[in-house]
């Protein structure tokens, strides 16, 4: 099942190629929301649920799907830092989790839809927040 799933979603989750690193990261979040509304999404949700009880399946899913996708987004964050679009002290992992976590939370819990409008607003607000210095 994992192999069939990975083959099916490979092209749907290809990295965006237009604009600055932050624009590409924004596009990636919106594309992720569109995918979470696709016919493949229910299979992904079931697969993620099944991962919890199967360490081998979990490792394969992480290695072959999640971590490569995450690495593409982390690379975009590092490019944005190098380009001066984000501060040098940006926590790339935290930024990626802040951008993608709400999409999966909405999809899995089901309390609100995962729309492209929501994803775009989320990406805009999170990226703006990470561009500003935080004084606590």
Number of helices: 6
Domains, number: 1
Distance between the termini: 47 Å
**Can you count the beta strands?**
0
Q: H/E order of the elements?
A: HHHHHH
Roughly how many Å is the radius of gyration?
15 Å
pLDDT below 50 for ≥5 consecutive residues: which ranges?
Answer: none
CATH homologous superfamily, by name?
A: Tetracycline Repressor, domain 2
CATH topology grouping: Tetracycline Repressor, domain 2
Helical residues, percent:
over 70%
What is the class in the CATH system? Mainly Alpha
CATH architecture: Orthogonal Bundle
Question: Please, could you describe this protein's structure?
Answer:
By secondary structure, the protein is an all-alpha fold. The chain is about 70% helix and about 0% strand. Helix 2 runs antiparallel to helix 4 (about 55-80), helix 2 runs parallel beside helix 5 and helix 5 packs antiparallel against helix 6. The protein has a single domain, classed as Tetracycline Repressor, domain 2, CATH 1.10.357.10.
């Amino acid at each position: 099942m994992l192999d069939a799933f990975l083959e099916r979603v490979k092209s749907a989750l290809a990295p965006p190629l237009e604009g600055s690193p932050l624009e590409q990261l924004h596009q990636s979040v919106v594309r992720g929301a569109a995918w979470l509304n696709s016919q493949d999404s229910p299979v992904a949700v079931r697969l993620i649920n099944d991962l919890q009880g199967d360490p081998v399946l979990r490792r394969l899913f992480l290695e072959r799907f999640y971590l490569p996708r995450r690495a593409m987004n982390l690379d975009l964050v590092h490019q944005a830092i190098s380009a001066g679009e984000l501060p040098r002290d940006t926590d790339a992992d935290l930024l990626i989790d802040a951008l993608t976590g709400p999409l999966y939370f909405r999809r899995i819990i089901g309390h609100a839809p995962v729309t492209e409008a929501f994803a775009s607003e989320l990406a805009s607000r999170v990226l703006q927040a990470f561009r500003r210095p935080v004084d606590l």
